[in-house]
Amino acid sequence: IVREDVLAVAEKGIEAWRKFSQPVIQQKVTRFIRTLSAKPEQALVVCRVDVQEEITRENTKEQYYINWGTTRVSVRVPASIHYAIDLSDPKNIQFKIDSPDNVLIARFPRPHVQAVEIRTEGMKTTRMEVGWARFKSYSGKFLEKSIEKSSYRFIRENAEKPEQIEEAKRLRSEEHTSE
C-alpha cells in the first residue's frame, strides 16, 4: 500500500465521520437549548463600556423686547453602559456546525442596552457662561440641574444608536485580541 493511498483513505474516513456525527451533534445542541429555562427579561451582559459624555444646554432670555443674554452650561458626565443579549427566547439563538472544521457556531441577537450607570460623584461642570443680565446662581445653576436630571435619558439614547453598539462590539473584540 502506497503512503498517498493511506492518507487518501484516512481523509475520506475522517470526512465520513464528520458527516455522520454532524446530525448527532446538532441533535444534542438542540436538546441542550431546549433545556434552557427561558425567563422573562433573562439576559447575558456581554460588554460594559465606560464613557464620558459632554452635555451642553443653553437658554436665551428675552422679556419686554430686551435680550437679557444667553446662558450656556456644559457638564461632563461619567457613566457605564451595560450591553446584553436577550436569552429569554432560545429560538433567537441559532446554531450551525461548520462541516470542514467541525466547529459549532452560535449566532445571538444584537446586543441591547441593559443598564446605564451614571456616576454622579464624577460629574463636573466644564463651562458656565452666563448672559450679560443674568445670574449665575439662578440661570446657570438651573441649566446645570436640568442637565443632571436629563443625563440618564441622553446617555441611554446615545448608547442605543446602532453606531454606538458597533463601537462597543469593536472595543470588546480589541480587548479579547490584546489579552
Model regions low in confidence, pLDDT < 50 over at least 5 residues: none
What pattern of helices and strands is seen along the backbone? HEEEEEEHH
Relative strand content: 35-45%
Please outline the major beta sheet: 4 strands, antiparallel
Shape descriptor reads rod-shaped
Radius of gyration: 28 Å
Q: How many distinct helices?
A: 3
Tally of DSSP β-strands: 6
Q: Ends: how far apart?
A: 48 Å
Structural class of the secondary structure composition?
Answer: alpha+beta
Average pLDDT, all residues: 78
Please tell me about this protein's structure.
The chain is α+β, with helices and mostly antiparallel strands. The protein is 41% helix and 36% strand. It contains 3 helices and 6 strands. It has helices at residues 3-35, 136-159, 162-178; strands at residues 43-63, 66-86, 94-98, 103-107, 112-118, 124-129. The strands form 2 sheets. Strands 1, 2, 5 and 6 form a 4-stranded antiparallel beta sheet that branches. It has a two-stranded antiparallel sheet with strand order 3-4. Strand 1 and strand 2 (66-86) form a beta hairpin. The longest helix has 33 residues, at 3-35. The model has no long low-confidence stretch (mean pLDDT 78).
